[in-house]
Amino acid sequence: MAWSLRGKAQLGGLLLSLLGWVCSCVATILPQWKTLSLDLNEMETWVMGLWEVCVNQEEVAVCKAFESFLSLPQELQVSRILMAASHGLGLLGLLLSGFGSECFQLHRIRWVFKRRLCLLGGTLEASAAATTLLPVSWVAYTTVQDFWDNSIPEIVPRWEFGDALYLGWAAGIFLALGGLVLIFSVCLGKEDVPSLQMAGPTAPPFYAPADESSASFYLTPRPRNLF
Description:
The protein is α+β, with helices and mostly antiparallel strands.
């Protein structure tokens, strides 16, 4: 099977979207959204995520889940909702884009409908990128604000960026690239319209042979009898 330029672009967009969706799911589960190191005890590190807070002491980690959703800071509450929405949008976009791509061959799906599915899937992937980048950037912004807050004494430890934030930024970039590639792949190349009415056999008009027809189209002069 020869891959067209549109098919290659759609496959690349699907792979980028899938990679971004997986990274987004992993970033949501990881507790390393914020890290805090104690100067008095360098072997002890605190990490905070969307679902739990953990204390790492040498090679032992003790985690405790948050008891109440309302007790969380506002940025973590919104991040939970937006990350869950990002997973749903990303998965739905992958399914629609997969059905609308050239990789999925089904004769009952018309090519115009497949292009619309691919366009809708790319739009959903771009929306998933926005709903991933927004909570990650918001948590990073509040972390920077708290780190440089002059009202907090200098002896108080400050939260810093965790590895999950960098993974979330990477996930948002992959989702955005995948969605844009899927959207632009709709404009690539030309595709024949497999319409039954246009491609159906058309029989040429039937003309009866001259010797079998009952009437002639031309009148020929009758030869005269010379004798």
